[in-house]
Amino acid sequence: MCSIKIKELKQRPDIKKNAKVNEAYLLLKKLLSELGNRKLPDTMVASINKEIEELNMNVNSGKELKKQIKKKQCTITKSLEKELKIVAKNHYRNYYMAIGMAAFGIPFGTAFGAALGNMAFIGIGLPIGMAVGIAIGTGLDKKAFEEGRQLDLEIKN
User: Fold this and answer.
1) Helices and strands, number each (H, E), in the chain
2) What is the pTM of this model?
């Protein structure tokens, strides 16, 4: 386990000018810092280091750099979730909220609309589905926290 260290991001003084790029850069830096405090398998660390090296070699700036940062962050978090079941704060809540709206909200709204004879009531189901999804997701987030699989940062896409 973890004989390799996670590489650091290259310092980029030029990104301070663009607030959105700087924000994305700092979030990725915080993610890497969080991961540095965990014992990860060497294969995972090598994969993360590969992504960091690619980003460090990137000469883009502005929107292109932000896009690359987000892409690398997404790749790292998806591989963490897939291989080690490590997730960011509120990951499951956000994921299941959307599923709840689609899987529960639309059918409930359709049922209400059909039962009341007015399809304008289809919108009533969406908040119900959202609440169901949030409840399920919050429970899974709590379980991940208790099992030590939750990172101490929230990633907003």
Assistant:
1) 6, 0
2) 0.81
